[in-house]
Amino acid sequence: MSDLFPPFAPDPNEPRKRLFKPVPFRVIVPNIITLIALCLGLTAIRLAFEGRYEPAVVAIVVAALLDGVDGRVARLLKGTSRFGAELDSLADFVNFGVTPALILYSFLLNELKAIGWIAVLVFAIAMVLRLARFNVMLDDPHRPEWKKNFFTGMPAPAGALTSMLPLYLSFLGFPIGPAIAPIALVYLLGLAFLMVSTIPVYSGKTIGLNVPRHWVLPIFVLSVAVFGLLVNFPWEMLTGITVLFLGSIPLSVMRYRQLERADAVRVASAPQPEAPEAEAPPDA
């Protein structure tokens, strides 16, 4: 019986096998940025229920800025991954779907009781549907190149930032009371419709890819001016950005239709491949 279980002494010099392959740090960095944004979104909920609405809105704004950074950092470091894409979508749902809706409910929509809560549910569900559609469209190999410059429906960060317009106005001193709650409800439902609709919204992804040399210094000056205004007059700037963004949607639709017609003309005028001639039947 002793031969069945011989003593075994492991070799101390034998390399230990790793259960998991090491992950490059360049892949981890974008996910850390996404998790920081998620922490800000969750913290904004706590701040709102403590009645501290201004820092709650600031937390969402910073989360939106980080959301625009993490993907670019991933592409810059060549650290994109399927895990990162899924994590980003889940964080966007919390930061831009759940958090703004709960803040609005705590701030104003609770005056409408159940009707206000239904609007919160509609907005959050519209956000998750919009994100799911966005993920599916990324895998479409037949999507024309020019369509990548447009979002289908309002993007998630824009939906969150525009939804908080009643709070911006309140911070500016406008009287936002129970009488405004029905208007805020209709406004929130309208944004939910824009998110799940097929209305094209310009994405601006190609801005900055090729900048003329004579525009470089003016862009630097304009960026500093915008940053200074946003720091010193945050609510005025956010209100103005919201109004300008909503006003730009019809212009985005017009531009999309122009490109769509031009693409249809190009496809129609392109030479079609000739069909192969049918072979003649052999003689009997």
Automatic annotation (TrEMBL):
One of its GO terms (molecular function) is CDP-diacylglycerol-serine O-phosphatidyltransferase activity. Its EC number is 2.7.8.8. This is CDP-diacylglycerol--serine O-phosphatidyltransferase. It catalyses: a CDP-1,2-diacyl-sn-glycerol + L-serine = a 1,2-diacyl-sn-glycero-3-phospho-L-serine + CMP + H(+). The keyword Transmembrane applies. Belongs to the CDP-alcohol phosphatidyltransferase class-I family. It is a multi-pass membrane protein. Residues 214-250 form the CDP-alcohol phosphatidyltransferase C-terminal domain. It is found in: Endomembrane system. Keywords: Lipid biosynthesis, Lipid metabolism, Membrane, Phospholipid biosynthesis, Phospholipid metabolism, Transferase, Transmembrane, Transmembrane helix. GO terms for biological process: phospholipid biosynthetic process. The chain crosses the membrane at residues 27-49, 55-77, 89-108, 114-132, 153-174, 180-202, 214-231. GO terms for cellular component: endomembrane system; membrane. The keyword Transmembrane applies.
